[in-house]
Amino acid sequence: MEAILTTKIPLSLSSSSSTSSNTPSLSLSSLSTLSKTTKKLSNTLIFKGTQHCNYPSSLKICAMSQTAPASVEPSTIPTEMKAWIYEDYGGVDVLKFGSNVKVPEIKDDQVLIKVAAAALNPVDFKRRLGKFKASDSPLPTIPGYDVAGVVVKVGSQVKEFKVGDEVYGDISEKALDGPKQFGSLAEYTAVEDKLLALKPKNIDFVQAAGLPLAVETAYEGLERAGMSPGKSILVLGGAGGVGSLVIQLAKQVFGASRVAATASTGKIEFLKSLGVDLAIDYTKEKFEDLPEKFDVVYDTVGEGERNVKAVKEGGSVVVLTGAVTPPGFRFVVTSNGEVLKKLNPYLESGKVKPIIDPKGPFTFDKVVEAFSYLETNRATGKVVIHPIS
Ligand SMILES: NC(=O)c1ccc[n+]([C@@H]2O[C@H](COP(=O)([O-])OP(=O)(O)OC[C@H]3O[C@@H](n4cnc5c(N)ncnc54)[C@H](OP(=O)(O)O)[C@@H]3O)[C@@H](O)[C@H]2O)c1
């Protein structure tokens, strides 16, 4: 673990002083032929309840159901918490573990969440590197957009959630424009109610934490591209956090007639397990040289002018990163709890499944390792941090 940070960052104090943590009881086993961590996971996590596996594929991801977390009374909310923070922009070495960071106070439209699990996104490390300095909130920063946890306090204007609710969401409405200074890599985080949804009961906190930013990006991009039943789509970067959800939403929610996606050799079977009709190994084939063209190209990789060569005349090209060549367009996701609510039935029915990278979940003291892994650009699905304590 990194050095313990002793300076207190300027978060406002909550009103009570107990130090109870009440971390919900969770368990998850990620088993994979790609993963060397299976043994370690099964040795260190407590398995309870019924096992349900998502994919009978080479990338086999199983989750265990959990016992309901105990509700946290407002009187048990501590004044200080553990959190990862950085005071300067830079590499993973700027990340420090703070054990006496003040618990945020909530505004009228916010709830305080006891964080059960948090997920990392590339925006977390790009932001930490200072790429969005001009529009970032001031330092010091607690990173983390994605959260799943339990509501422990509600603001006076919050109607939809109550203490004890299990919720999930992307806590920063605008990913790049003034994202929250105090994010989800902490024991507690304050979030506007409109950014949250109740966690589907059939998925655990680890799975829920991996969804919000990625699934909202997948959904918003497909909507903006005019994806609709009967259209075909090519997903560039199909094995990543966003791409693996674009594939599933295109098929299950938007009614795509044909889904193609790219990944490297070892992830081709995984793409097939997600339901792709055509899995393209980008180490062997150039997607833009295929005779087949697509109504929509969804580029999560940043393939520059190559992506527009794969689209049909009049089609749409969504670009999440890198250079944009017309008719391609880029957008930045807006966090919106309504999208999660809309997608909850698909998650509850199992039509859309959260994908958790089998190297995780990473425990709270392994956040630096989790960032380093995400920054290799080789993650499959989501890199999740759990438990948070
Ligand atoms: N604009 C927005 O609102 C927005 C929102 C979310 C994300 N993003 C951006 O979108 C990008 C993807 O995000 P993410 O969360 O999905 O990242 P991620 O999970 O870290 O993506 C990792 C995946 O990318 C795949 N990949 C890497 N190079 C590839 C290539 N040349 N062809 C095909 N697949 C390739 C890897 O598969 P292999 O190991 O097989 O190569 C790996 O599975 C990031 O740059 C992120 O910042 C933008």
Description:
By secondary structure, the protein is α/β, with parallel strands linked by helices. It has 2 domains: 4-21 and 68-211 and 355-385, Medium-chain alcohol dehydrogenases, catalytic domain (Quinone Oxidoreductase, Chain A, domain 1, Alpha-Beta Complex); 214-330, NAD(P)-binding Rossmann-like Domain (Rossmann fold, 3-Layer(aba) Sandwich), CATH 3.40.50. It is 17% helix and 24% strand. It has 8 helices and 18 strands. It has helices spanning 38-44, 122-128, 205-209, 212-224, 243-252, 268-273, 337-348, 367-374; strands at residues 4-5, 28-30, 51-53, 61-64, 80-85, 96-102, 110-120, 146-154, 166-170, 188-192, 196-198, 232-236, 258-263, 278-281, 294-299, 311-319, 329-330, 383-385. Strands 7, 8, 9, 10, 11 and 18 form a 6-stranded antiparallel beta sheet that branches. A 6-stranded parallel beta sheet has the order 14-13-12-15-16-17. It has a 3-stranded mixed beta sheet with strand order 1-6-5, with no helix packed on it. β13, α6 (268-273) and β14 form a beta-alpha-beta unit. The protein is globular, with a radius of gyration of 20 Å. The relative contact order is 0.16. NADP nicotinamide-adenine-dinucleotide phosphate (NAP) is lined by residues 121-123, 126, 175, 214, 217, 236-237, 239-243, 262-264, 267, 282, 300-301, 320-321, 332-333, 374, 377-380.
